[in-house]
Amino acid sequence: MNDYVLLTDSSADLTDALVKELGVEVLPLSFTMRNKTYRNWPDNREIDPKDFYRQLREGEMATTSAVNVSDFTETIEPHLKEGRDVLVVAFSSGLSATCHSAQIAAQELSEQYPERKVYVVDSLCASLGQGLLVWYAARMKNEGRGIGAVRDWLEENKLHLCHWFTVDDLHFLKRGGRISSATAVLGTMLSIKPVMHVDDEGHLTKVGTARGRNASLKALVDHMAETAIDPAGQTVFISHGDCEEDANKVAEDVKRRFGVQTVVLNNVGPVIGAHSGPGTVALFFLGRHR
Length: 290
Prior knowledge:
Number of domains: 2
Function: May bind long-chain fatty acids, such as palmitate, and may play a role in lipid transport or fatty acid metabolism.
Distance between the termini: 34 Å
Helix content: 40-55%
Low-confidence stretches: none
Largest sheet: 6 strands, mixed
Number of strands: 13
CATH class of the largest domain: Alpha Beta
GO molecular function: lipid binding
Oligomer: single chain
Number of helices: 11
Strand content: 15-25%
CATH architecture of the largest domain: 3-Layer(aba) Sandwich
Keywords: Lipid-binding
CATH topology of the largest domain: Rossmann fold
Radius of gyration: 19 Å
Protein name: EDD domain protein, DegV family
Mean pLDDT: 94
């Protein structure tokens, strides 16, 4: 029996077109800006990403909220009632309480519906890194792989999902407590850009720095050169904080250097963008290790 639902949350930053193509369900996280709360739907029905980033550039702040237990319960339970199992691929537990909410809901529902399967995979991923993991899962599901086999593949391979980020405005990292005020001021004066990744615990961590924007973008691709598995045969995802031109530079570099044929771009959604800011560029691929 292959009747199951693949469910993720909006931190995966999948485009609406990809969500429909893959046949996955997406639960939106929430964010609040100017005292108004929005849900982060893949089709951007409540706020356009350009408007969101414009407000950040104007000095507005956004606060974010995880998906709560009742949201997961209300989404999953109808499927169980109708005889379908559910596989949840959740936002990294190192960055959000969303995964914990999914695990609580899954445990409670498994007790109520013991004949059904509800599995939660802590992706330890963010943005289109989570999205790329979901993409692989959906492809396997659509090829006929069962829920247990897909869950096992995700658990075995999630730490091969590499995330490399850089940001353009250090003050967003300062605001989130990831760097000091002095580091932000000095780095801005000297045009020093951090190069970061998501580690094996699912935390966003700084790995190095680059002098200037072009060098920081090149550093992302250099890291791919070090660890990527069969890069020419991969589909690569890139997300960006309203800086599509820079994201396209990275895409062209990836294609030129490695022979990659397919690159998918989308905005970094508001839930992560509130902390990384405009000008973020992130590169995602499968590698030997993170």
